[in-house]
Write a sequence for this structure.
């Protein structure tokens, strides 16, 4: 994608401007062979707060296709850039 000035704009940047924020999920799951043993997995992607559709898709896939049952999921989310933070500047102040 180009920004109109011939530069390429990062797809991650475009998603952030659209309201996506970096989301990290720390997933604890039970080992299929030893249910008493918990193992952790860290998932990270850009997702939309508060419904987290990307994370929901991943967890649905996990439950449908993988054998290790989920124990718990902790989510951390940070909007790196919000549309409200971007604005045009109409003037310039010069300090001596």
């Amino acid at each position: 994608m180009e920004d109109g000035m011939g530069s390429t704009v990062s797809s991650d940047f475009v998603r952030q401007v659209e309201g996506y924020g970096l989301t990290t999920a720390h997933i604890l799951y039970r080992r299929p062979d030893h249910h008493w043993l918990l193992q952790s997995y860290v998932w990270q992607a850009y997702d939309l707060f508060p419904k987290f559709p990307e994370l929901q898709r991943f967890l649905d896939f996990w439950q449908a296709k993988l054998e290790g049952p989920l124990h718990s999921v902790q989510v951390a989310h940070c909007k790196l850039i919000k549309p409200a933070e971007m604005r045009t500047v109409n003037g310039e102040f010069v300090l001596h």
Remarks:
- Strands lie at 21-30, 38-47, 70-78.
- The longest helix spans residues 53-65.
- The radius of gyration is 20 Å.
